[in-house]
Amino acid sequence: MISIIPKQNRPVGAIFSLLLALTIHQTLTSNVPTTAATPETSSPPASPVTPGPPERGNYNVTNANDTVCLLARMALQLNISFTSTSQGKLVQEVLNLHPNLVKFSGSCESDRASLILTEDNITLTFSFSLNSTSNKYHLSGLELSASLPDMAKGLVVRNTTLNYLVGTLGHSYMCQKEKTLSVTQNFSLNTFQLQVQPFGVKGDFGAAEECELDEDDMLIPIVVGAALAVLVLIVILAYLIGRNRSHAGYQTI
After folding, report:
1. How many domains does the chain have?
2. What does the alpha-carbon distance between residue 16 and residue 26 come to, in Å, rounded to a whole number?
3. 159 Cβ neighbours under 8 A, 6+ residues apart
4. 125/29 Cα distance (integer angstroms)
5. Is the Cβ–Cβ distance between 96 and 49 less than 8 Å?
6. Is there a contact between 179 and 191 (Cβ–Cβ < 8 Å)?
7. In terms of residue numbers, what domain contains 142?
8. pTM score, two decimals?
9. Residue 245: in which H helix or E strand, if any?
10. DSSP-assigned letters across all residues of 5-59
């Protein structure tokens, strides 16, 4: 008698499901594009928003005899860097001083004078020195104290080794063009329409000594005018020479 071995039941449904799942997985993974991870980069600090040109203010200092000893007319703009509380990083800001809000004071001595400007939480101090030998004065120091709402801590910067705004005793120093005075790494001062006289004041500004920027502006029209004058002279000479030659061509018989 031949024995018959019964067939084992194969899990056909399970195998079919496994094959279907593998096929779907391959299809999905082949269709999804691979993307490279983008490294994080720190964005550079935003450029400071520059306000419009500042207004020109008139400032003076009187001595113990109630006589004016220092005169200044100028428009001022502060460039400062500080740690921002809201942004948590170093930022730059440009601020105009407003003459109608500024309180001014100062002092005068024989060879030293100062002008102090205060607006809200900002105090700006100018220090001038006079060389009695050469009768030349200059801006020798600038100090800024500022406490703005977004500052992590108050800013106090100074430089007492400057050599700006050089003038002669009894004369004023003038610079109508914008001029940048670098003070420290965190502070520079822009001046506009500046005229200052810290020594030898006799009621009003003395004769003005102009800065190089203003002299360059005056030089351009002078050069242009001289060039035009030379051109006119050449034309006149050419005309006279041509006229003489035409007369020489006719002889009396």
Report:
1. 1
2. 16
3. 141, 142, 143, 183, 184
4. 70
5. no
6. yes
7. 57-214
8. 0.68
9. helix 212-248
10. PPPPPP-HHHHHHHHHHHHHHHHHHHHSPP-PPPPP-PPPPPPPPP--PPPPEEE
User: Per the domain annotation, does 186 fall within a domain?
Assistant: yes
Per-residue pLDDT of the chain (253 residues; tens, 9 = 90+): 444 444 444 554 555 455 555 555 555 454 444 444 444 444 455 566 778 999 999 999 999 899 999 999 999 999 999 999 999 999 999 999 999 999 999 999 999 999 999 999 999 999 999 999 999 999 999 999 999 999 999 999 999 999 999 999 999 999 999 999 999 999 999 999 999 999 999 999 999 999 998 764 544 555 556 677 777 778 787 777 777 766 565 555 5
Which residue type is seen at 236?
A: I
Could you give the CA distance from residue 196 to residue 58 in angstroms, rounded to a whole number? 10
Examine residue 181 and state whether it is found in any structural domain, yes or no: yes
Nearest to 167 by CA among 202, 190, 134: 134
Look up residue 44 and give its two tokens.
């550079």
- The tokens for 52 are 């419009």
Question: Per the domain annotation, does 29 fall within a domain?
Answer: no
For residue 47, give every residue at least 6 positions away whose Cβ sits within 8 Å of its Cβ, in sequence order, or none: 92
CB-based contact 162:155 (threshold 8 Å): no
CA distances from 237 to 54, 226, 228, 229, 240 (A): 52, 17, 14, 12, 5
Is 35 domain-assigned? no
CATH number of the domain within which 115 lies: 2.40.160.110
Residue 162 has, within 13 A of its CA and on its CB side, a CA count of: 24
Which residue bears the tokens 């942004």?
Answer: 87
